[in-house]
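Q: Fold this one first, please.
A: Sequence and structure below.
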Amino acid sequence: MTAEPRLLATCWTTAGTAKPGGESPRSPLTVAERIAAAAADGWEGFGLLHADLMEFQRTRPLAELRRLLDDHGIAQLELELIENWWADDERRPASDGVRRDLFEAAEALGARTVKVAPETSDHPVDPARFAERFDALATEAREHGTRVALEFLPFATHIDTLEAGIELVTQVGNPAGGLCVDIWHVARPGTDYAVLADALPADYLFAVELNDAAAEPIGTLFEDTVHRRLLPGEGSFDVPAFINAVRATGFAGAWGVEILSDRHRSLPLPQALAEAREATRACFAEADRRRG
């Protein structure tokens, strides 16, 4: 029998009514409430957004957050999100502040991964400079005992596909610079899951995220991904096939579950977490059945 998957509740899965692109990305729930709820439901990993980390630190030290995680048996912490880290314009000072905060927190808390974003605006990007900056970012992460996982996005203006992400991290070749692979970003544009095992070395696969969606997007891709994701196994994605494709790479980390939807945000957190975990476990059971 295959062992139970180690599941990580990404930052938005426990964020209550908060969402990307909203007036404030900060969760109305306290970090302590979210950690306790995730642990009570059997999650082994926990994700935290910069805004929520800063709210916690406004009144309490990082050492207390470390104790909360340890006391609740949270074995893996993931932090996010560094944006505009390649920029040379007015966006860079704010980016550098987030970068400093997250790397310092990662070192203090033992966070294994810090997620970083690609370019999503209309600012021009020099691919060579982008790669150089990614290498430097990864090197800085390693100095703090962590690593950076770039999450390619199908609505990005640079690094918008799995293939582009693979090309970047393998060409840069920094052991602390890899990818975050979300099934939504793979399946929505129709990418063959086989690309994972065929082209992505496990050494550069740092984070994996599971969810599902309807057959066709509703609204823009950003609107669809923020408001209408479904639980794994409830939509059009072949989640068990994706799980087995990831397994074929040799990936051995915790599996993130990232549910972004109006329905999920409307639920009490214990119910939202229980539904997400049970749906994900069912997909793993089907993946195991297919493997025989």
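Q: Good. Now the second chain.
A: Here it is, same layout.
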Amino acid sequence: MTPADYEFLRAMLKERSGLVLSADKQYLVESRLVPVARKAGICGLAALVQKLRNPAEPLIAAVVEAMTTNESFFFRDKVPFDQFRDTMMPALLAARGNRQIRVWCAAAASGQEPYSLAMCLREMQEKIAGRRIEILATDISTEVLAKARAGIYSQFEVQRGLPIALLVKYFSQVGDLWQIAPEIRAMVQFRPLNLLRELSHLGAFDVVFCRNVLIYFDQDTKTKVLRNLAQVTRTDGYLVLGAAETVVGLTDAFEPTSDRGLYVPTPMARRMTGTLIGRKPQRVVTLARAR
């Protein structure tokens, strides 16, 4: 791959996905794109880049998917899920009355994060019986979303962060694999989405999980994504970022709470997002009281 080809790929990936590659990552690009070229019947990376220069959307999408990091595991970092159960949900249940509560996982990857939240809600069903709950899970990669919808995971994947009690309770074994229960899968709606695009069509959310995404972006892209997230976060809602991420120096729309990684809209953001409140959700799941 020539330096010019690599610079073209760097610019294309940033424009399409926000992903920022440093000058020394050419080896990574080559290792991930050789299989893409082979699958498309293209002889070599130079020929692949040439085809990309003449916009071919399916091929561009394949390249973006190949370069996107999609690592995830159940109850990753644990703390955000404790906050969801002990801080966010009690406050929202008190504030919402009988109104719906909407949760958005903005970078769902292969589904472990939204399914972890669904299991949290299922474990809380005595407290939230009859409440309308929606979990929307999005990702730029359609390939990982297909895996997420199926809800099938390897032994290694279910051993990463998933308590054994929840594995037994909510999964069934299929050969050497494990599939999450239909009632948990039904609680999550998966949809492809690019965080760099307009998000207002999604409506407003009470909780937004956008963890371990900003770390791959440059400062301008981080600011743009946070601005987009602010537009769809309810005035008394919550934003959850990864442990290595922050809003400080990037936006005035969110401010940190005393809990690590947990942010709330600032007064300025509350004025900006007021028009979104009350938009009709895409899908609602009602948790019935356990019998």
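Q: Anything worth noting on the second one?
A: Residues 274-291 have pLDDT under 50 and may be disordered.
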